[in-house]
């Protein structure tokens, strides 16, 4: 598991305006930075001026991110979650019927969702695998029915056959929680489709992933894994400009692991891709907030989403679109975020 002890550079983002002379833009977005934390395995971190960054790290951290499925990454974007499953951890069964799923998708679109992510297989801890035919039957009709919303549809699946059916029905993006690692046919399918793909870090199967997960250094281990999966995707013919990365909060991670990833989120901009954060209603929020009911974790979910945006995360994947849009709007106004930006 241990990687060579080369340095990593985590930018220290800031939002205040005006930015000081010499500040560097973070991923071409709303954050800037003048310093970075140098991380190296087995050594204490140190802070250095941004001007001391190696050229390749500086370029990756600063370059603007391209649009994803036609949606620009110049401001924070919301991805609404639509689980058409009977057993998802938060809303299982609520939108399993096609009419209910369509109505919920349209509510999210009206509330300002920039993407809608449709999943037909629960990947909550302990969940069992769903047969391909059943997953297609759950997702393909809903994708087809929502093609006219004007909001790009993402298919949340680790199976190539499910992704193929959804893309044919009008989906614009693939969201694979295994980063192309579950199905050998997924990488060539995505490459041929021209669709963007989200590569998420996970460890093990949903049924077993929370059984004592361990890392040498969770932030650096997840970064290295995603860097390797990006290389695999590029080798398969998927351009980096079509890749989004997700550190996989809650997927094979303890509470401490999740918090370490959230604190270090800005490091993932060095991968040169838009960063997606999916923490909505997850168990660690309930643990910290002493809230056992997943659908009562909106305040904690919003807090985590805004913390991610403050670190330059381009896409937040959330259940509560209207509430998150309101919170984001007020937070942007209060912080002056976006003033002087495009």
Description:
- There is one protein chain.
- The protein has a single domain, classed as Alpha-Beta Barrel (TIM Barrel).
- Helix content is 34%, strand content 16%.
- The protein is built from ten helices and 13 strands.
- Strands 11-10-9-8-7-6-13-12 form an eight-stranded parallel β-sheet. A three-stranded antiparallel β-sheet has the order 1-4-5, with no helix packed on it. The chain has a two-stranded antiparallel ribbon with strand order 2-3.
- The mean pLDDT is 91.
Describe the structure concisely:
By secondary structure, the chain is an alpha/beta fold. Helices cover 34% and strands 16% of the residues.
Measured as a percent range, the helix fraction is 25-40%
Oligomer: single chain
How far apart are the first and last residues' alpha carbons, in Å? Answer: 42 Å
CATH class: Alpha Beta
On the 0-100 scale, what is the average pLDDT? 91
Low-pLDDT sequence parts? none
- Major sheet: size, sense and barrel closure? 8 strands, parallel
Order of helices and strands: EEEEEHEHEHEHEHEHEHEHHEH
Helix count from the secondary structure assignment: 10
**Spatial order of strands in the largest sheet:** 11-10-9-8-7-6-13-12
Shape descriptor reads: globular
Rg result: 19 Å
Strand content: 15-25%
Number of strands: 13
- Give me the CATH fold name: TIM Barrel
Instruction: Tally the structural domains.
Output: 1
Task: List its traits.
10 helices; alpha/beta; single chain; eight-stranded parallel sheet; three-stranded antiparallel sheet; TIM Barrel; 342 residues; globular
């Amino acid at each position: 598991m241990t990687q060579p002890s080369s340095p990593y550079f985590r930018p220290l983002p800031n939002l205040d305006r005006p930015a000081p002379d010499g500040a560097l833009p973070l991923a071409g977005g709303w954050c800037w930075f003048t310093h970075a934390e140098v991380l190296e395995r087995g050594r204490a971190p140190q802070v250095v001026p941004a001007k001391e960054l190696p050229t390749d790290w500086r370029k990756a951290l600063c370059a603007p991110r391209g649009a994803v499925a036609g949606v620009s990454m110049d401001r924070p974007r919301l991805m609404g979650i639509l689980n058409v499953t009977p057993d998802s951890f938060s809303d299982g069964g609520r939108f399993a019927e096609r009419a209910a799923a369509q109505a919920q998708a349209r509510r999210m679109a009206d509330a300002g969702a920039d993407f809608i992510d449709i999943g037909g297989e629960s990947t909550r801890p302990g969940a069992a695998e769903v047969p391909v035919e059943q997953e297609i039957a759950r997702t393909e009709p809903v994708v087809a029915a929502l093609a006219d919303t004007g909001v790009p549809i993402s298919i949340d699946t680790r199976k190539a056959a499910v992704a193929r059916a959804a893309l044919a029905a009008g989906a614009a993006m693939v969201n694979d929680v295994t980063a192309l690692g579950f199905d050998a046919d997924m990488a060539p399918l995505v490459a041929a489709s021209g669709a963007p793909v989200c590569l998420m870090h996970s460890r093990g199967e949903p049924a077993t992933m929370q059984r004592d997960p361990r890392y040498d250094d969770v932030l650096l281990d997840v970064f290295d894994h995603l860097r390797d999966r990006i290389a695999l995707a590029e080798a398969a013919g998927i351009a980096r400009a079509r890749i989004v990365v997700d550190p996989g909060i809650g997927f094979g991670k303890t509470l401490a692991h999740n918090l370490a990833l959230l604190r270090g989120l800005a490091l993932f901009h060095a991968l040169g891709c838009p960063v997606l954060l999916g923490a909505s209603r997850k168990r660690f929020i309930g643990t910290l907030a002493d809230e056992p009911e997943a659908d009562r974790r909106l305040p904690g979910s919003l807090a985590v989403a805004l913390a991610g945006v403050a670190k330059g995360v381009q896409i937040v994947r959330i259940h509560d679109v209207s509430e998150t849009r309101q919170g984001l709007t007020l937070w942007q106004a209060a912080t002056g975020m976006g003033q002087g930006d495009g």
